[in-house]
Every structure is written in structure tokens, then in C-alpha cells.
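Handout, page 2. Input:
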Amino acid sequence: MKISQDEFRKELLCGLARENCVTVLNARAALSAAVVVRICRFVSTLCADHGDTECRRQSETCLSAADALERGDEKTFLELCRYACSTCPYTARVSGNNTITLQ
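Output:
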């Protein structure tokens, strides 16, 4: 499948955001809350840079999750993270092993 460089950039941003998000959720017990907060804020910037309305909502959710954890509210943090992961547009778009080629 051929896509434009801009579309490739957007897919890359989404993929990086998703991988970082899942990794930090799986490893959060081994990381300090401060490190998790920084990673979640970074993920939020990746989603925001995508430009899609739904991705911007995800960005806001990730930022809210980071704020909750910073306040010590781990329950809200986990709820927001699970919501963000389950509603991520990138997750819904990824299927199979499609090879992407820049035009």
C-alpha cells in the first residue's frame, strides 16, 4: 500500500504513541510515578501532533491520566488509560501485516 509522507508521519506518530502507552502500562509497577507521568505526557504530545480530532481527544485523555497520577489518583489514572487504549483510532485502523511504502 502506498501512502503519502504526511500519512506515514501520522501513522508513525500513532504507532509510537500506542507502543509507549502499552509499554508503560505493562511496566508501571517497575517505574516511579514521575517517570510514568512524563511518558504519558509525551504520548499525549504524539497524539496531539497527529491533528485528527479523535487523536486530539486521546491526547486530552492521556494528559488527564498523567494529571491524575501526579495527584496520586491511580484509580482514575488506570481508568483513563484503559479508556484511551480501548478507544484509540490507531488500534482500530491497524489490521494484519500491511506493508507501507512512501510515495
